[in-house]
Amino acid sequence: MYCPRCGAVNPDDAAVCVSCGTALAGPTEGAPAGTTRTSKAAIASLILGVLSVFTCLLTAIPAIICGIVGLVQVGRGKGRVKGTGLAVAGIVIPVALLSLVMMLLAILLPAFSRTRDIAQRVVCGTNLKGLGTAMMVYQMDYDALPTPQMWCDLLIQHADVGPTSFQCSGGPPARCHYALNVNAVGSRTALPPDLVLLFEAAPGWNTVGGPDDLTTAYHQGEGCNIAFVDGHVEFVRAQQLYRLRWTVDESPQGSPDGSGTAPVR
What we know:
By secondary structure, the chain is α/β, with parallel strands linked by helices. It is built from 4 helices and 7 strands, in the order E-H-H-E-H-H-E-E-E-E-E. It has a domain at 114-243.
C-alpha cells in the first residue's frame, strides 16, 4: 500500500504510513492497487526550473532541491510513483542556466575591470588637465608659476581648484597623487611647450620632483598621465616615458643603459 501523501510503500494492513504518519484508507477506500501517481515534488521542480529563467535564478536552488526529492520519491515508490523526467528537467534547467551565467561572468568580468581602469585613467587625466590650466591662470595673474614649496596650497587659494583635483582615482587614499617638475620652476627663460609640468608621483602634498619620482603604479604599470607646459595632458605608456622632456635646455634622452626606457616606480 502506498501513502497518498509522501508516496512511501507500506504493508497492506498498515493503518498509518511508516514514513510520515498519514492515516491509510486501504486499497478499497483510497487509490486502487497498482495505480501510479506523479510526484508533486517533481512537478514543482519543473515549474521552479522554468521560472528560474524569468526570475534571475531566484528559484534555481529550490528547483534543484525539489528535483532531488522527486527522484527519491520515485525511487521509493517502486513503480507506483512517476515523474523522473520532470524531476530531471527541473534539475537540468537551473544547472544549465547557472553554468551559462558563470561562463558569461568569466568572459565579461575582465572587460568590466578594463573599463574601470580606463575610466580611472580618464578621471586622472581630467584632474591633471584642470591643474595644468590652473597653473597657467596663476602664471598669468602673478607672472610666475606657484612656488614649489606651496604649489598645491596656492592653486587652491588663488586658482579656484578643489581638493579632489589633486587625487588620482586609481591611487591609494591621499591628499595628492601628483608632483610638480622641479625643472619647470625658477627658470628665467620661456618654458618649452613639451616640457613636463605635472606628473603622477607617490602620495604627498606640495611634492616637487623629477623623472625618478614618476610612478605608473596607479594604472597597473601601463603608464601615467603627464601634464605639459602647453596645457595638454597625455597618457604616456611606460615604454615611452624615456622620451619625456624634463629640463629646459635638453632634449629627451634614453635610459643610461641604452635600453630605451627609463626606470619608474
